[in-house]
Automatic annotation (TrEMBL):
This is Membrane protein. It comes from the Bacteria. Pfam families: FUSC. It is found in: Cell membrane.
Length: 382
């Protein structure tokens, strides 16, 4: 079995302790001074980086802006403030590592397109000298970009429109100003991309820890079901709502996770499907269990399915711990119920048959999910 024995099927779930957080934190070189190890631990520990992602991002943006200001001021570049503006536009949003490459290409295209169009508008204003024509052209061009800003490639189109106005103003900027602003924008993009890769937030961290929390919520819901607690009170419904929100968040992270750790979307979809089936089965189990007011039926159910109840709960908590700590050896251990033939295999015909079949389905689904996580552990454990 995965954990120590607990004969009571309703025993409390294990709680996270400092020793179960992350094994990756132990990989900090021990030959470093003590103060250096303590200083680096929040930066190298995946769980702490996940928890403090906003703070790390804020520090990264602040340092990036400072570097941009010092560079443009030190070189005495005209209109150097636009490099800082570009830095904020490009790096301001928190991006996962798996999206940085894609966003970098979109930013480069958007800036080059916008700067080119802006310079052309400045040139035509200088030669034609018709402000009204320039205003109409700028409005039409930005309307075109706005049309394409909705849907795929929208970020490139939006950045192009912004860059047009940065470079050209209202069309009356001198050509030299437009060229200098283009240079400032390119400097801002280069520095922003450089700082984007400094301690990025990996989507796989968010995926791991959100999936771990979802599995623990599943274990808590299952404990409530088998112990006869209400499945209609606020606490139970709050757990279900939290699981539904976690499903949506996990789904949004999957493309970035696939790029970061080279796990196919098919494999991630399979894991997501197991979690969805687990949640659906738990909802059905809550409505098909014996009436909690029937103490005899409830006691019989707990005795008959004692080993299976424990197997399911231990596997759910075990997977959550493996995802959060990075100690994946526990995923290799078979969590099948021991101690004789499983009661789920016995052809007993009673009012509990429906509940027993659902429990069998849940146990098989949880075990299949464990096997998939074990198979892909070498990739998501970074």
């Amino acid at each position: 079995m995965w954990e120590g024995r607990c004969d009571d099927s309703t025993c409390p779930l294990p709680q996270w302790t400092e020793s179960t957080l992350t094994i990756e934190a132990l990989l900090i070189p021990m030959n470093l001074p003590f103060f250096a190890r303590r200083l680096l631990r929040p930066l190298l520990d995946p769980y702490r980086r996940y928890r403090h992602a906003k703070l790390i991002h804020a520090v990264r943006v602040s340092i990036g802006l400072l570097a941009t200001i010092l560079l443009t001021t030190g070189l005495n570049l005209p209109h150097g403030e636009w490099a800082s503006v570009t830095m904020l536009v490009v790096i301001g949003g928190l991006q996962h590592h798996g999206n940085i490459g894609k966003k970098a290409v979109e930013r480069a295209y958007g800036t080059l397109i916008g700067a080119s169009v802006g310079l052309l508008l400045v040139v035509q204003e200088a030669y034609v000298g018709q402000p009204l024509l320039t205003y109409l052209l700028m409005s039409a061009i930005c309307g075109f970009f706005s049309y394409h800003a909705i849907g795929k490639g929208g970020y490139t189109a939006l950045l192009s429109a912004i860059t047009v106005f940065i470079v050209a103003g209202h069309g009356d900027n001198p050509l030299s100003d437009g060229l200098w602003r283009t240079v400032d924008i390119l400097i801002g993009i280069a520095l922003a991309l450089a700082f984007s890769f400094a301690l990025p937030l990996y989507a796989v961290y968010s995926w791991r820890y959100n999936l771990a929390s979802a599995l623990r919520d599943c274990a808590q819901i299952y404990s409530r079901i088998i112990s006869g607690q209400s499945v209609t009170d606020d606490e139970h419904l709050k757990l279900l709502n939290r699981l539904n929100a976690a499903m949506l968040q996990l789904r949004s992270l999957m493309p970035s996770v696939s790029k970061e750790v080279r796990i196919s979307m098919t494999e991630l979809d399979a894991i997501q499907r197991h979690l969805r089936m687990c949640i659906s089965t738990l909802e059905i189990l809550g409505n098909t269990r014996p009436d909690p007011r029937d103490e005899q039926a409830t006691a019989r159910m707990q005795v008959m399915l004692k080993a299976e109840h424990r197997q399911i709960r231990v596997q759910l908590v075990g997977m959550a711990r493996a995802l959060k700590s990075g100690v994946t050896e526990r995923l290799e251990r078979n969590g099948q119920a021991s101690g004789g033939e499983s009661t789920l295999d016995a052809p007993v015909y009673s009012a509990l048959d429906g509940y027993r079949l659902l429990t069998l389905q849940l146990a098989a689904n949880v075990d299949a999910m464990r096997q998939r996580l074990a198979k892909s552990a070498g990739r998501w454990k970074i």
